[in-house]
Write a sequence for this structure.
């Protein structure tokens, strides 16, 4: 019954009506079996912001309990508008900027292969650039999978692409230096990761790329210092986003706070749903036609198998990123493709949630 | 995966269009289950149209560049193959065929 639209609406209902530490745990007003919140905290905060606006504009959309399954023209319009706002504020500008960067880069590459007089014609005209950017924004995967299923995926994708632009080695004088851009890029990627766990698809590439930058061209002591700097950035970003979930606990309730955070983490990786579902065409689904591993292995073994196979498929991409002295934005995009393909094909399907 | 492939269209439109369509095909059973069979075909057709249009315009750029003494913007083997196969007539035929599908 219902789909992702109802899930997103329900999360608005939950976040605006319940105290923050009840968002992820079952209680009288939060039945987790009914589209319980199972995305990271930034999604919850976004739902809270949109839900707060909905309280004024379409209060029936977020009425506790009574709004379940409720749909009207106004509520649908509001929900669609929130997606468009998220697209317009984050995803579209980032995609336009990335497209521009790639188009300029390609034009420069072509120009360098051509004579000086011909190089001017190798760059995209405004019309061509608009067509290129439109083609990117109207990509069928984005329209059907991300928007068609009513997800705010554009937020995490926008943050991921922004992080990519910041940490890539393009237009740098000194590519080996870990700069402020890399730190800001790390924060952006943490935001993406905290919006949707699916962004873990990209994590190995970011990790290996930044690790290489941190360790390159300096002594081990300095390199470790840089890694610590990045580590602190990640820990701080996660702390800012996760600790508010413990807000209502007093200091003597530390164990309860830890339990809440454990519950939030547990909600995001529902392994009990099985290694695949919903006919997503990964390796496990394809193999089930020949041999169904679910009949032979228990859940823990399946998790370990899928982890091992995912790491194996990730290895070539990660090695490639690590050994290259400098990786431009095209190289990083290709690495992201390889990494996400490895996860899509071999990881436990909860990663697709 | 697909969002990372999308901006790379400018590097090699045909190859990354193929990646998009192949990636989308892997979700075909899910989309059919969700009664999105028609949007699946429509979105795929629109994407091909846009890529062909973009490719055609880039070819126009390359031609004018070539006339002024520069080489083609496509220097890779695949790029040359695309240049050879997708003359304006072929693009027109593709447009008509895809319009019929749409």
């Amino acid at each position: 019954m219902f789909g992702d639209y109802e899930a997103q609406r329900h999360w608005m209902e939950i976040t605006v009506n319940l105290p923050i530490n009840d968002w992820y745990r079952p209680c009288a007003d939060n039945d987790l079996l009914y589209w319980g919140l199972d995305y990271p905290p930034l999604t919850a905060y976004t739902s809270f912001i949109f839900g707060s606006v909905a309280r004024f504009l379409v209060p029936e959309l977020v009425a506790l309990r009574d709004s379940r399954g409720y749909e009207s023209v106004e509520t649908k319009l509001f929900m669609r508008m929130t997606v468009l706002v998220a697209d317009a504020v984050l995803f579209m500008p980032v995609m336009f900027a990335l497209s521009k960067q790639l188009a300029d880069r390609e034009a420069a590459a072509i120009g360098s292969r051509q004579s000086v007089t011909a190089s001017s014609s190798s760059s995209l005209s405004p019309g061509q650039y608009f067509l290129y950017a439109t083609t990117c924004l109207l990509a069928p995967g984005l329209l059907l999978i991300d928007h068609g299923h009513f997800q705010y995926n554009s937020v995490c994708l926008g943050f991921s692409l922004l992080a990519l632009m910041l940490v890539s080695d393009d237009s740098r004088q000194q590519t080996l230096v870990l700069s402020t851009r890399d730190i800001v890029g790390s924060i952006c990627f943490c935001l993406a990761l905290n919006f949707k766990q699916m962004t873990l698809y990209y994590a190995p590439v970011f990790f290996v790329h930044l690790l290489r930058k941190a360790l390159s061209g300096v002594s081990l002591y300095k390199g470790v210092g840089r890694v610590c700097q990045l580590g602190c950035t990640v820990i701080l970003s996660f702390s800012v986003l996760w600790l508010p979930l413990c807000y209502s606990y007093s200091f003597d309730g530390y164990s309860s706070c830890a339990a809440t955070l454990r519950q939030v983490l547990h909600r995001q990786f529902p392994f009990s749903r099985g290694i695949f579902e919903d006919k997503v065409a990964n390796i496990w689904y394809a193999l089930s036609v020949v041999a169904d591993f679910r009949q032979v292995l228990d859940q823990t073994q399946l998790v370990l198998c899928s982890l091992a196979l995912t790491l194996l498929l990730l290895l070539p991409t990660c090695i490639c990123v690590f050994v290259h002295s400098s990786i431009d934005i095209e190289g990083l995009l290709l690495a992201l493709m390889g990494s996400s393909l490895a996860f899509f094909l071999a990881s436990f399907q909860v990663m697709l949630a | 995966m697909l969002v990372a492939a999308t901006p790379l269209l400018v590097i090699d439109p045909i190859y990354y269009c193929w990646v998009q369509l192949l990636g989308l095909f892997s979700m075909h059973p899910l989309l059919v289950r969700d009664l999105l069979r028609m949007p699946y075909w429509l979105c795929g057709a629109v994407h091909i149209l846009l890529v062909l249009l973009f490719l055609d315009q880039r070819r126009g750029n390359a031609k004018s560049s070539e006339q002024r003494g520069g080489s083609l913007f496509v220097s890779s083997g695949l790029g040359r193959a695309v240049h050879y196969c997708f003359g304006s007539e072929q693009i027109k035929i593709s447009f008509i065929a895809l319009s019929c599908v749409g």
Notes: The radius of gyration of chain B is 15 Å. The longest helix of chain B spans residues 37-67. The helical segments of chain B are 2-5, 13-26, 28-33, 37-67, 77-85, 88-101.
